[in-house]
Description:
single chain; alpha+beta; 2 domains; 5-stranded antiparallel beta sheet; 6 helices; 5 strands; 11% strand
Amino acid sequence: MPSRRSIHIIFRQFVLACCLFAASPGVFAQPQIKSQEVSEADGIPVLIKHLPDWENVRNNTVFIQNSSELRNAIENRPVLELIEFTAGTEAVTAPYPAGNLLIIEYTNPQSSLDADGRIIRHLTETPQNPPVIYRRIGNYNAFVFDAADQAAANVLLDQIKYQKIVQWLGEDPYLLQRLERYFVTTTRDIFISTVIWIVGGIGLSIVTGIIAGFFFFRFRENKRATRTAYSDAGGLTRLNLDELSE
């Protein structure tokens, strides 16, 4: 049988191991969520570089990865309560002359689409003053707050380019809509092209006929002018029906 001293040593080692295991950082903690994409050249998150004229607003840019950071960056915006920062969701905000721009990037189209529906419904039911200019661009949900000019805010949103390929894991819910749009667009283009060709052909035929008739008439007149007038009526009166004799 093991001695009492051996049992005591084993017990102390067990307690020490438990203490070290509990004190080890990150054993039970959730791993920190990093940026989805970081530039290999300078380590700056790619989302920041998708801001319009990002280099000039870099010093005033705020990169956001959770709801508390979002509330600290942009205060008193009820619509932002609808934003859920699931794993991988990121946001960036920066001030512009047209207003404060906020871009939220989701990791998949489904999440972005769900947020888009909630945001549009909220903005429709609860108009903001000054108005909040909103648009979904790819997996980006973009806002312009404190916009004095709606046209300038839309120009700012136009400068946001979503440079990623959206690929649905299951069936594309917009496949039928795209096919319908393709069918309508193709039918419209064919109809317009057909009408243009028909009208153009008729117009060209009319113009060609007028030009050909004019030259034929001039040719006949010139040929008639060179002929010598004669009469075979033998002193009798003759009707000049062909207008070629006198």
